[in-house]
Automatic annotation (TrEMBL):
<keyword id="KW-0735">Signal-anchor</keyword>
<dbReference type="GO" id="GO:0000139">
    <property type="term" value="C:Golgi membrane"/>
</dbReference>
<keyword id="KW-0119">Carbohydrate metabolism</keyword>
<keyword id="KW-0333">Golgi apparatus</keyword>
<dbReference type="InterPro" id="IPR005331">
    <property type="entry name" value="Sulfotransferase"/>
</dbReference>
<keyword id="KW-0325">Glycoprotein</keyword>
<protein>
    <recommendedName>
        <fullName>Carbohydrate sulfotransferase</fullName>
        <ecNumber>2.8.2.-</ecNumber>
    </recommendedName>
</protein>
<keyword id="KW-1133">Transmembrane helix</keyword>
<keyword id="KW-0812">Transmembrane</keyword>
<keyword id="KW-0472">Membrane</keyword>
<keyword id="KW-0808">Transferase</keyword>
<dbReference type="Pfam" id="PF03567">
    <property type="entry name" value="Sulfotransfer_2"/>
</dbReference>
<dbReference type="GO" id="GO:0016051">
    <property type="term" value="P:carbohydrate biosynthetic process"/>
</dbReference>
<dbReference type="GO" id="GO:0030166">
    <property type="term" value="P:proteoglycan biosynthetic process"/>
</dbReference>
<comment type="similarity">
    <text>Belongs to the sulfotransferase 2 family.</text>
</comment>
<dbReference type="GO" id="GO:0008146">
    <property type="term" value="F:sulfotransferase activity"/>
</dbReference>
<dbReference type="InterPro" id="IPR018011">
    <property type="entry name" value="Carb_sulfotrans_8-10"/>
</dbReference>
């Protein structure tokens, strides 16, 4: 059966988002694969639906999507595919793959595409660039997917990448100076000017500050719930960073390109791990841990991540 969810734009235009099962339409898996991967991905979709139902029942807020909400949804017309990219969840490699898929022969190997090239907005088309009717058609008929990651591991990865590496001076200037000005007592003039040495504790203070949440979070530490709107848009596949290669190549099989295109594999020695995340959180107060968990709670619930053992919530 087909589930229909009504999504409204503004207060006037509404369109239905049809949820189909691409596992039956696009790919003929063996019985073993069907009973394994398809069942797994159905369970992940059900988890999202259940979490959305609980959240909807407990929330007084009923917001509607606007075109600006769809700027993270990358569209591949040739393969009728929509990918919602989440920073710090292999999105550079996924953008490379999408460039291969949409390039019509311009690229063959994703890793030949420089990482900075993958993030040039004009290289990929996003759903907010279409008319309402075109958006409606694509949400109903294209295969939609996203990849997620343990929320606090993703958060620490974002901090390490944006605040501890010298080449990210634009983030230091844009966010680091603001964070140091607000939360560091007796900051040096150099720190106030360059913002290059933000401590993780200061970053967390910034995140849980109501003023930050009113202003809106940057995409690198924004929740998946806010970036991809899984309670409004029903994704056909929810991939996980923890099973990245397996999920990614299964998706490429579904699309029908699995024989000619593989997701890039590489062992990254600097990757943020659970143990590393626990170490970063060891100096965060219980109150701030509770506030932070509340901020990312929906991501934990929707994507079936358990509360980390190192977290102090009492």
């Amino acid at each position: 059966c087909v589930k229909v969810i009504a999504v409204c734009w503004g207060s006037i235009i509404c369109f239905p988002v049809m949820r189909r099962n691409p596992f039956m339409e696009l790919y003929n898996p063996t019985q073993t694969e069907l009973s394994g991967a398809a069942v797994l991905h159905q369970a992940r979709r059900d988890q999202v639906v259940d979490a959305c139902r609980v959240y909807s029942a407990s929330s007084r807020k009923r917001r509607v999507l606007t075109p600006g909400d769809l700027k993270h949804l990358v569209v591949d017309e040739d393969h009728e595919l929509i990918y919602c990219y989440v920073p710090k969840v292999a999105c550079t490699n996924w953008k490379r793959v999408m460039m291969v898929l949409t390039g019509r022969g311009k690229y063959s190997d994703p890793m030949e595409i420089p990482s900075n090239e993958a993030h040039v907005p004009s290289n990929l088309k996003t759903l907010n660039q279409y008319s309402i009717a075109e958006i409606n058609h694509r949400l109903k008929n294209y295969l939609k997917f996203l990849f997620v990651r343990e929320p606090f591991e993703r958060l620490v990865s974002a901090y390490r990448n944006k605040f501890t590496l010298k080449y990210n001076s634009s983030f230091h200037k844009r966010f680091g100076t603001r964070i140091i000005r607000r939360y560091r007592k007796n900051a040096t003039q150099d720190a106030l000017l360059n913002g290059a040495d933000v401590k993780f504790k200061e970053f967390i203070e910034y995140l849980v500050d109501p003023a930050t949440q009113r202003d809106g979070l940057n995409e690198h530490w924004q929740t998946v719930y806010q970036l991809c709107h899984p309670c409004h848009i029903h994704y056909d596949m929810v991939g996980k960073y923890e099973t990245l290669e397996e999920d990614a190549n299964y998706l490429l099989q579904l699309v029908g390109v699995g024989d000619s295109l593989r997701f890039p594999t590489y062992a990254k020695s600097t990757r943020t791990t659970d143990a590393m995340t626990a170490q970063f959180f060891s100096n965060i107060s219980t109150q701030q841990q509770i506030q932070l968990y509340q901020l990312y709670k929906l991501d934990f619930l929707m994507f079936n991540y358990s509360i980390p053992s190192y977290l102090r919530l009492e």
